[in-house]
Amino acid sequence: DLYNFRRIGPDTKVFGVVGNPVGHSKSPHMFNAAFKSVGFDGIYLPLLVDSLPNFLKTYSSTDFVGYSVTIPHKMAALECSEEVDPIAKAIEAVNCLVKRPSDGKLAGYNFDYVGAIEAIEEGLQEGGSIAPRSPLADKVFVVIGAGGAGKALAYGGKAKGAKVVIANRTLASAVDLASNVRGKAISLDELDDFAPEEGMILVNTTSVGMKPKIAETPISKKALKNYALVFDAVYTPKLTRLLKEAQETGAVIVYGTEMLANQAFRQYEKFTGLPAPKELMKEVLSKSTQ
Ligand code: ATR
């Protein structure tokens, strides 16, 4: 029951997720169920796109009014935005494009950052009271990866006062990103021996461990003992090898589905101007990711 075709009419607003690959995306499930639950006249499609600029040019005069942007188009989406939210500009990546009703201009946002950081802060606060300052402040915050998601997480760590460390396969990209967030860059090879202190935070933003390569992990199990919390942006499978080993080592784990859900709520609110039906969207997501 992914689409409700009977409702499509001249006023139906069309949305989609642009990516490559995009077949695995859970966003159509979440958004269509949410639209239906409140009777919003909209439809949300998976859109397999090679070139984002060409796609946007081709469909500029259609009823498409908003896009979620995923791999590998988050940097191109920044270039294609006619207006950029300051946070997306600082991150240098856009994961949501919305056509402004007033003049049809495309506005770019980044909700990956807030989606992930919120989930991580909740993980750190579990059982405790909400502190006035972020539980990330002054913690060593290790980000694996320096692509679109890596940039968003690095920005988030920095914004919350953490000491950001970027570990990336291509060291040059880690160095670039680290200089933007006034952090430190290390190579992936150095990660296993990197232990300046205990109780660090680890976030994986690479696709390492994603289905079908579920036996892979970006860090040795032994090194996980230095981390109090581990977040994995990969959500297929939900429990990645990284998260499983982190759990066995005693760290708090935060699933990639949390970030996916949190950023989808923000996109939904931008797309529709309505509050997101969060519980329903989470339920749909959890059913489609088991
Ligand atoms: P996203 O927008 O989801 O962040 P991306 O921009 O394509 O995706 O970035 C992918 C990140 O995952 C990069 O940091 C990439 O490392 P490189 O900069 O060396 O390319 C990292 N990555 C992807 N596959 C990887 C692998 N098999 N091992 C290690 N790192 C990998």
From TrEMBL:
Residues 136-207 form the Quinate/shikimate 5-dehydrogenase/glutamyl-tRNA reductase domain. GO terms for biological process: amino acid biosynthetic process; aromatic amino acid family biosynthetic process; chorismate biosynthetic process; shikimate metabolic process. It is an enzyme of class 1 (oxidoreductase). It comes from the Eukaryota. GO terms for molecular function: 3-dehydroquinate dehydratase activity; NADP binding; shikimate 3-dehydrogenase (NADP+) activity. Residues 256-285 form the SDH C-terminal domain. Keywords: Amino-acid biosynthesis, Aromatic amino acid biosynthesis, NADP, Oxidoreductase. Coiled coil: none annotated. Residues 17-97 form the Shikimate dehydrogenase substrate binding N-terminal domain. Its EC number is 1.1.1.25. This is shikimate dehydrogenase (NADP(+)).
